[in-house]
């Protein structure tokens, strides 16, 4: 293990954590405020990447395609909320799980019919191609640094939106007592629709930004959705701050564990045993972290106020 390799993996972990936060932020808002378990949040991440493929092809520009893809994801989120999610308000969580699982199957097949099953790629914007020198022997891709910066900017804007604006006040009040907020004259159905669509757009933003560095293919959001649920359990349901901290923890632990755990185990056991145990323990590391957090803090690290 060298310092350069450690720094590279820390940056890779931060990048994964930022992508997880963008997905988990919308998921925790929908779950914490609307009390809806949305298993289809992963396909909204996938749709964001596919919409970005089409938008960049139509406009010939990453920067023109990005707002177009996000606007389309926002509109699709509003349609999905009105047609499928709204009838699920107040229903049993099992019914919500079944309905949103059906959406996963439907959207995955629709994507294959529309874009095909072969992996697609989003061209890297020319201005962000190449790498930047961070220190001697360490050059890191500019695009990945921009992705980390964009995620941090979104986290800051979300914090201001939730804690310093009237929309955030209504959001927190709706999470605490939606019938009371509705009785005060607030269009709670419209508020929930905007929250759901905004969460869908955040997931789509993650997918669009990940497109130039990952292959765009059907089912690409399924694995990320599982980690996003781990993030909101660790951070606390309905907590943006908790989602941010937990996403970074999960991203770093997952990346560093897969990179270095085998070498660390070789210090205390044979090479063959370490090679067998290291990858297995690394893949379980985030779930072990979740179990520890649930044992000591059953409501997560930063639970939303009751």
From TrEMBL:
Membrane topology per record: Multi-pass membrane protein
Top-rank taxon: Bacteria
Location of this chain's protein in the cell: Cell membrane
Pfam families referenced in this protein's UniProt entry, alphabetically: BPD_transp_2
Transmembrane segments annotated in the record for this chain: 6-31, 43-62, 68-85, 97-122, 142-162, 195-214, 226-253, 273-296
Protein's UniProt keywords contain Cell membrane: yes
GO terms classed as biological process: amino acid transport
One GO CC annotation: plasma membrane
InterPro entries: ABC_transp_permease, BCAA_transport_permease
Keywords: Amino-acid transport, Cell membrane, Membrane, Transmembrane, Transmembrane helix, Transport
GO molecular function: transmembrane transporter activity
Family: Belongs to the binding-protein-dependent transport system permease family. LivHM subfamily.
Protein name (Swiss-Prot/TrEMBL): Branched-chain amino acid ABC transporter permease
């Amino acid at each position: 293990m060298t310092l350069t390799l450690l720094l590279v993996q820390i940056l890779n972990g931060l990048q994964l954590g930022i992508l997880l936060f963008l997905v988990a932020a919308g998921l925790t808002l929908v779950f914490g405020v609307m009390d809806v378990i949305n298993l289809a949040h992963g396909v909204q991440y996938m749709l964001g990447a596919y919409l970005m493929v089409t938008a960049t092809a139509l406009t010939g520009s990453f920067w023109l395609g990005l707002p177009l893809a996000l606007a389309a994801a926002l509109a699709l989120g509003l349609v999905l909320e009105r047609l499928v999610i709204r009838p699920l308000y107040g229903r049993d969580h099992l019914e919500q799980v079944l309905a949103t699982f059906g959406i996963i199957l439907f959207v995955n097949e629709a994507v294959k019919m529309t874009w095909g099953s072969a992996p697609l790629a989003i061209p890297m914007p020319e201005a962000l191609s190449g790498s930047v020198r961070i220190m001697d022997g360490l050059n890191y891709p500019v695009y990945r640094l921009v992705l980390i910066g964009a995620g941090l900017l979104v986290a800051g804007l979300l914090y201001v939106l939730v804690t310093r604006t009237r929309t955030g006040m209504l959001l927190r009040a709706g999470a605490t007592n939606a019938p009371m907020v509705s009785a005060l004259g607030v269009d709670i159905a419209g508020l929930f629709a905007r929250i759901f669509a905004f969460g869908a757009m955040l997931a789509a933003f993650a997918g669009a930004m990940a497109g130039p560095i990952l292959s765009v293919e059907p089912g690409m959001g399924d694995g990320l959705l599982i980690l996003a649920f781990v993030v909101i359990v660790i951070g606390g349901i309905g907590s943006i701050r908790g989602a941010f901290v937990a996403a970074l923890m999960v991203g770093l632990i997952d990346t560093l564990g897969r990179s270095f755990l085998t070498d660390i185990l070789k210090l205390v056991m044979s090479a063959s045993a370490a090679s067998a145990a290291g990858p297995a323990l690394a893949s379980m590391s985030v779930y072990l972290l979740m179990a520890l957090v649930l044992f000591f803090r059953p409501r997560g690290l930063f639970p939303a106020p009751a």
